[in-house]
Amino acid sequence: MRSRFFLFLAVAGALAPAVAGQTADADFAAFQALARRQPPKPAAELSPRESIEFTESLGQERRTAALAFLAAHPADPRRWNIVNALNPSSPRFIKEIGAPGENGVPRLTIDEAAAAAWKARVAELKEAMARASDLPEDLVEQRAWSEFARDFRAVTVAKNAGKPHDYTPFEARFAAHVARFGKLPSMPVRRPTISVRWRKTSRAPV
């Protein structure tokens, strides 16, 4: 009997990571499903009140699901996908939807303390994400692409101002980006942002 008990413990211990992984998969899928949720009728047919109620309810559900995932799966790299999707302005923490104002939009009573606390929490989580060393590859790609786009815009600003500019380095940077992240689902929407004309007419920076 004693040996069977220890065998049970061993089997349970072996199954625990798999069960935890399945739970994390389900929780992540549930959060993603919230992003795809549509209102009960076309948006154009919603009254201002109905639109506010739907948006607020969805925001509250997303907040609850996000915090639950972070608490239940603190080492899952996908937690950063969830943090990346958080909006500090949603939910709005509406306490009451009042009568419409002059513009036809209902007046709202907001729980300002709760809204401020949520904004602070989201800022804290996004700061932690910026320092994280276990970002999923899709978020690493987003960060790298943002840096590429930022630098490219800076050169374009210089070009438009008639200042020395050089687009040449971006060709190699783009090729390296594609080489590393080419298999990600996001890559088909990326397009080369280096113009042959720009490369031929740009002057070397001074």
Please, could you describe this protein's structure?
The chain is mostly helical. It has 2 domains: 2-135, no CATH class; 140-201, no CATH class. It is 63% helix and 6% strand. The chain contains 7 helices and 2 strands; from the N terminus they run H-H-H-E-E-H-H-H-H. Strands 1-2 form a two-stranded antiparallel ribbon. Helix 1 (2-35) packs antiparallel against helix 2 and helix 5 (137-160) runs antiparallel to helix 6.
Q: What does the secondary structure layout of this molecule look like, with pairings?
A:
Layout: H1 2-35, H2 48-72, H3 79-85, E1 94-100, E2 106-110, H4 112-131, H5 137-160, H6 168-181, H7 196-201
Antiparallel strand pairs: 1-2
Helix pairs in contact: 1-2, 5-6
Strand content: 5-15%
The total tally of domains equals: 2
Indicate the overall shape: globular
Coarse structural class = mainly alpha
Query: Which spans have pLDDT < 50 for at least 5 consecutive residues?
Result: 5-19
Order of helices and strands: HHHEEHHHH
Give the radius of gyration: 24 Å
Percent helix range: 55-70%
Q: What's the pLDDT, averaged over the residues?
A: 84
* Overall strand count: 2
Order of neighbouring strands in the sheet with most strands: 1-2
Helical run tally: 7
Terminal-residue CA separation = 82 Å
Largest sheet: 2 strands, antiparallel
Keywords summarizing the entry:
2 strands; two-stranded antiparallel ribbon; mainly alpha; 206 residues; globular
Task: Summarize this structure briefly.
This protein is mainly alpha-helical. It has helices at residues 2-35, 48-72, 79-85, 112-131, 137-160, 168-181, 196-201, and strands at 94-100, 106-110.
